[in-house]
Amino acid sequence: MFDELPRVRIAFLPTPMHRLKNLGESIGLDNLWIKRDDLTGISFGGNKTRKLEFVVGDAKTNKCDTLVTVGGIQSNHCRQTAAVAAATGMRCILLLAGEEPDQYTGNLLLDKMLGAEMKFFPDDAPLMLNRRLDEIIETLTEFGLTPYAIPAGAAMPVGVIPYAVAMDELTSQFKEYDYHPDRIIVATGTGGTLAGLILGAHMLNLDIDIIGITVMSPAEEVKERVQDLLERTVESYPEIEPFKPTINVDDSFIGKGYGQLDDGVVSAIEMFAKMDGIFLDPVYTGKAGLALIRMALADDIATDSPTLFYHTGGEPVIFTYSELGHK
């Protein structure tokens, strides 16, 4: 699928898929599995590494030498962009929403170690920084660079395609393990991963309920964002036939807000760790994990209904949440 598109192969693929036996038994699910995109390899892995294979492939095709992207102070996407830039010999410039801290920790520390250049914007939210990309690209061009702009989360058509390809990878694993889930539960922020999974399911004629657990925006806003991404992707790649997607987004687990820790998320992180030795992050997968657990305990998921939890990574953020260690 999409084999003709330029791609820099840097991720460790396919990522594993395996059963969560202990967690499944504890929450009453007989057939709970996990897809491990926290193990894509470079720089602690994560879902954006898949996207960056195609994004950097496109950048290289266009003779670009500098990747420019945006995100929060602890952005997993920015960390992975910095890592892929380092591995492919490109310059990386990160526009980060928030005050520059006195001490670098978590992803920010890794960004620095990877050689990324960082500019901080105390008055901007992460998604609002997308508005600054055109201005920054113009300035860098005037300085003689050939920059490539990547919006937050690589939420762009070339960043959607990789998760359609990931769905093809999953389909091969479903056949290998004779496992056919009724639903996939995945955290969603900027919407690109969710859009890609929906596109892949459509192209492969898969009957799977893909549930996006939004971590920051209301469900209707996320649905509109995903719809827009899918429409733009269909326009950009003529081989994709237009279709009317079913976009399922749950905003019940945003809690106190983006990146804000609450007791439910802490409990979900602890359960995954203690039951099956898997770490979730407090911002994205922790909320998706909480959604899975509460859906199961509320009998919203039948005991015998095969369910796949899609782990999108983000573990370095754990080290910025000291409250996780409090009793």
Describe the overall structure.
The protein has helices at about 20-25, 45-60, 75-85, 105-115, 135-140, 155-175, 190-205, 220-235, 265-275, 285-295; strands at about 15-20, 30-35, 65-70, 90-95, 115-120, 145-150, 185-190, 210-215, 250, 305-310. Helix 3 runs parallel beside helix 4. The mean pLDDT is about 95. Helices cover about 40% and strands about 15% of the residues. The chain is an alpha/beta fold. Strand 8 (about 210-215), helix 8 and strand 9 (about 250) form a beta-alpha-beta unit.
> Structural class of the secondary structure composition?
alpha/beta
Strand order of the largest sheet: 1-2-10-7-8-9
Q: Main sheet, how many strands, which sense, barrel?
A: 6 strands, mixed
Structural domain tally: 2
The amount of beta strand, in percent, is: 15-25%
Q: What is the gyration radius calculated from CA atoms?
A: 19 Å
Q: How many extended strands?
A: 10
**Shape designation:** globular
CATH class label of the largest domain: Alpha Beta
Percent of residues in helices comes to 25-40%
By CATH, the topology of the largest domain is Rossmann fold
CATH architecture of the largest domain: 3-Layer(aba) Sandwich
Order of helices and strands: EHEHEHEHEHEHEHEHEHHE
> How many helix segments?
10
Unreliable spans: none
Q: Distance between termini? A: 48 Å
Round the mean pLDDT to the nearest integer and report it.
96
